[in-house]
């Protein structure tokens, strides 16, 4: 495994564009550190400091930082599809196989690299979240600090699942731009499934339950939006704000299932394709 990861890291390191995109994908999530220190002056009447609003309190901070950090995954998604596109355009995929790398090892090298970067991103956002929380949070008890830390697990699985989807599209289409465009096509298809389910069942709740099993939606549902939860902390008496924001095992299982399928299909495409 380490050998395969080393081969991919060497390729990425030699590509200037990949180096820039990897740097951006790791740095941008840390804008939450900047946001935590922002002070907004309203014409001299009062100053609003985001860190003092309670949104960086434990345990809710785990939910907030992982939700927003997940939106920066598109930068590394470009790296993933470029890994495949460059292999085909530079003919290195054929050379790798000639040099003794099996097709299975070729796909695993891509997947291991995806897991490696996803784990690194998760550790970094976890450390940043912990430091911000320790500085701003009113609660310092260990039981509260590490409550909801499962959002980090959800963040990791979300990254692995999304990048595995990008890997499959890269293998399917061989071109980075087409692979990224197909993400938008898939998003449209999922909404078409939703409307089809709505017509079939006659209500939105059932339609959303169907849509929740689709790849992009299942990944999104791992970490639900935190805005309603923030409002719940400010207005606990408003029962209409209550919703299920937790990380559930069956949501993780769905994403892991899609991840395994995407990696398997990527391997099948490579195995059957004439290089």
Characterization of the model:
The structure is a single chain. Helix content is 72%, strand content 3%. It has helices spanning 2-13, 16-27, 31-36, 60-69, 73-89, 92-98, 103-136, 142-145, 150-173, 176-201, 204-211, 215-221, 227-234, 249-272; strands at 39-42, 46-49. Strands 1-2 form a two-stranded antiparallel ribbon. A hairpin with a 3-residue loop joins strand 1 (39-42) and strand 2 (46-49). Helix 4 (60-69) packs across helix 7 (103-136). The relative contact order is 0.13. Pfam families: ABC2_membrane_2. The chain crosses the membrane at residues 20-40, 60-84, 111-132, 152-173, 180-198, 249-270. Keywords: Membrane, Transmembrane, Transmembrane helix. This is ABC transporter permease subunit.
What's the overall geometry? globular
Total count of strands: 2
Strand content: under 5%
Order of helices and strands: HHHEEHHHHHHHHHHH
Protein name: ABC transporter permease subunit
Transmembrane segments: 20-40, 60-84, 111-132, 152-173, 180-198, 249-270
Organism: Microcosmobacter mediterraneus
Keywords: Membrane, Transmembrane, Transmembrane helix
Could you give a quick summary of the protein structure above?
The protein is mostly helical and 275 residues long.
Fill in the keyword field for this structure.
275 residues, mainly alpha, two-stranded antiparallel ribbon, 3% strand, globular
Secondary structure topology:
Layout (H helix, E strand, L loop, with lengths): L1 H12 L2 H12 L3 H6 L2 E4 L3 E4 L10 H10 L3 H17 L2 H7 L4 H34 L5 H4 L4 H24 L2 H26 L2 H8 L3 H7 L5 H8 L14 H24 L3
Antiparallel strand pairs: 1-2
Helix pairs in contact: 1-7, 2-5, 4-7, 4-9, 5-9, 5-10, 7-9, 7-14, 9-10, 9-12, 9-14, 10-11, 12-14
